[in-house]
Design brief:
The chain has 222 residues and is mostly beta strands. Helix content is 13%, strand content 42%.
């Protein structure tokens, strides 16, 4: 055997073995798992969303304080009246003595007078109701009323009076006219002077010359 060829062959084998050992110690190619490597860590699951914070209960709104009533403004530039003056609806703490005189007269015969008196506070009202039953021969009972209503009011140094009268006139039979009755209803408003008598109205009977006069005297009682 030729010695010159043996030595190079041994060196070639040694280098081939060295190369194989080096390949086995290097990292395996991509895509192949090895026993020396740790398994890959799985990705962490996404964290659940944080629950929304519970809304804090809101406090109920505070009650609104009541507002004072508004005073109407004057449209002509004048100052609005004070609330005390607006609440004052009654008159003064003063009485008035009212003396009503009803005069019933037929022709030239002496007159018949009837007097009605009442005390009424300023700004208030009074009324008097009187009914009389009249019995006649061969006739039904006749009711004769005499009613007076009055509402006085002091206006400065004068008196404003609203008065009404209800009265009935009985008529005896005459040669040409039968018996009957006439009703009178009066209502009047007048300005009076303190302590002075004033004629408010005068009514006439439509069938005869009978007339009825209503007179009043108003006196302020201080």
């Amino acid at each position: 055997m030729n010695v010159r060829w043996v030595v190079p062959a041994i060196a070639l084998l040694a280098s081939t073995a060295t190369l194989a050992v080096a390949q086995t110690t290097t990292a395996p190619a991509a895509g192949f798992a090895t026993f020396d490597q740790a398994p890959p860590t799985p990705p962490a699951p996404p964290a659940p969303p944080a629950p929304a914070a519970a809304a804090a209960p809101q406090a109920p709104p505070a009650p609104r304080s009541p507002q004072a009533p508004r005073v109407p403004r004057a449209t002509t530039g004048e100052a609005a009246p004070a609330p005390e003056a607006m609440r004052r609806t009654r008159g003064q703490l003063v009485n008035l003595r009212l003396e009503f005189t009803v005069t019933d007269q037929i022709g030239t015969a002496p007159p018949v007078r009837k007097t009605i008196t009442m005390n009424v506070a300023d700004g208030e009202s009074g009324r008097i109701r009187t009914n009389a039953e009249v019995y006649r021969r061969n006739a039904a009972v006749t009711i004769v009323p005499l009613s007076v209503d009055a509402s006085p009011e002091i206006d400065g140094n004068r008196i404003r009076l609203r008065a009404s009268l209800e009265y009935q006139l009985l008529k005896d039979p005459e040669p040409d006219l039968p018996a009957g009755k006439t009703s009178i209803t009066q209502s009047v408003t007048a300005i009076l002077s303190d302590g002075v008598s004033t004629i408010l109205s005068q009514s006439a009977d439509p069938l005869t010359d009978r007339k009825v006069t209503l007179e009043v005297k108003a006196t302020i009682i201080r």
